[in-house]
Design a protein that fits this description.
This protein has 21 helices and 4 strands. The protein is mostly helical. α3 packs antiparallel against α4, α12 packs across α15 and α15 packs across α19. The two termini are 32 Å apart. This is Transport system permease protein.
């Protein structure tokens, strides 16, 4: 019951914040919301835009990844509450309605995920175990994204250097873990090879980005132009603190995860590795989230996403909630200083969009490979055929389904088709 209440509170609060223009989860929506707040876009247009930008990601990305890992990917909830909150006009009666629907949506995601997984287990061909392979390549592949971001921003040569050093760092850690070289008090310590490689790549990206400094004498772009919008975010700090606390507590209970990488690590019981991956992702997204928040006056319900790491590393939900609230408060009151840093180092500011693009490309490939492996485990031979065909048909058709969703959705489709084959006597499932 505590878990359901927590999910309902997250859904309700996120929907209300979206409705009031305080915070939205979709980075693409954040620059659009002020247009409505300032009367330059109707609420109907905003609602339609929110639906168009978020619905496909909920159905095609958030929910399939959640099913694969048996932990709810935060996109499944907060992209949905963005739609709910932005469809309704702000008002004395409509805002509470948005909150109620958000709460029901949160409960629906919680019970719906359990119901789907339980239903899959009752089928003649239980493909849940096979479907779990969707996330396997994600963890290993994720360490590549800093090198990709470097290539996008600073060129191929620097990206290859970062990639090779990160790859070597990973292999050194594998060797050290195997030989039990690192010990504390006589007990061997195991480090995450992927986590270390990711940190090394991020260091390279940060160093390259900080080499680009502004040549202007008067730095006033973000720091002074958007003072009123930063003040607006600070005015709603208490609401955002509650959101951060709820998210951190839910993460601590392993109800939700902030990204596919940490989700898959957490579902495998690799808590510390999941925390490291979550931290790395949060640092990478600071430039993007900070710049959009400062320029629009609209924050995100999870802030810079450090609240997920706080939830993972906290000993219990209460401590997680307190830390989550404090982290959000600190982020908000550091926005002005961050604006000055982003103005001083334009390379860091520009890296935000490149990091997002790099992460997207890595996830597209990793989830496609994972989906193919899962599908082929469910129905050997036919699985590879189906995923390759599904991917190419989607490309030829103009990509009606986002690339990240092709692998997971295809694996689910193969599982359903495999069950039809089994019922028709065309396929004999292996002994389970």
């Amino acid at each position: 019951m505590l878990e359901v209440i927590l999910m309902m509170c997250i859904g309700a609060l996120a929907a209300v914040m979206a409705n009031m223009g305080i915070a939205v989860f979709n980075d693409g929506l954040r620059p659009i919301v002020p247009k409505n707040l300032e009367g330059r876009m109707s609420r109907r247009e905003l609602g339609v835009t929110a639906f168009a930008m978020s619905f496909g990601l909920v159905i095609g990305f958030g929910i399939p990844i959640s099913i694969a890992g048996s932990i709810i990917l935060i996109h499944s909830i907060l992209l949905g509450t963005d739609i709910i909150g932005l469809i309704f006009k702000r008002g004395k009666f409509t805002t509470p309605i948005a909150g109620i629907l958000g709460a029901l949506y949160g409960a629906g995601i919680y019970y719906g995920l359990k119901a789907v997984v339980d239903a899959f287990k009752l089928l003649p061909l239980n493909f849940v175990d096979g479907f779990n392979k969707v996330g396997e390549p994600v963890v290993v592949s994720f360490m590549v994204f800093p090198a990709i971001a470097i290539v996008l921003q600073f060129g191929m040569k620097k990206g290859i250097i970062a990639f090779l050093v990160a790859a070597l760092s990973r292999q050194i850690i594998v060797f050290m873990n195997t030989e039990k070289i690192i010990k504390i008090g006589g007990s061997p310590i195991t480090l995450s090879p992927e986590g270390i490689a990711l940190i090394v790549g991020m260091i390279f990206l940060l160093v390259y980005a900080m080499r680009e400094k502004s040549t202007e004498k008067n730095l006033s772009t973000l720091a002074t132009l958007f003072t009123d919008r930063v003040t607006r975010i600070k005015k709603h700090a208490w609401v955002l603190m509650i959101s951060g606390g709820l998210i951190a507590a839910a993460t601590n209970l392993l109800l939700i995860a902030g990204d596919p990488i940490s989700l898959n690590l957490l579902s495998d019981g690799k808590i510390s590795e999941g925390g490291i991956a979550s931290l790395a992702k949060a640092f990478g997204f600071v430039p993007l989230i900070a710049s959009t928040a400062i320029a629009t006056g609209v924050y995100g319900p999870v802030g810079f996403t450090f609240v997920f790491a706080a939830g993972i590393f906290s000993p219990n939900p209460v401590v997680a909630a307190i830390l989550g609230a404090i982290i959000i408060l600190a982020e908000i009151f550091l926005l002005t200083k961050l604006a000055a840093v982003l103005d001083r180092f334009p390379g860091i500011r520009a890296s935000g969009e490149n990091i997002r693009t790099a992460m997207t490309r890595v996830l597209e490939v990793a989830l496609l490979v994972g989906g193919a492996n899962a599908a082929n485990t469910i129905v050997p031979g036919f699985g590879f055929f189906a995923i390759v065909g599904f991917y190419l048909l989607n490309e030829v058709a103009g990509r009606p389904i986002v690339r990240m969703a092709v692998g997971p959705i295809g694996a689910i489709a193969v599982g359903i088709i495999g069950n039809l084959f089994a019922l028709l006597g065309l396929y004999t499932p292996p002994t389970q």
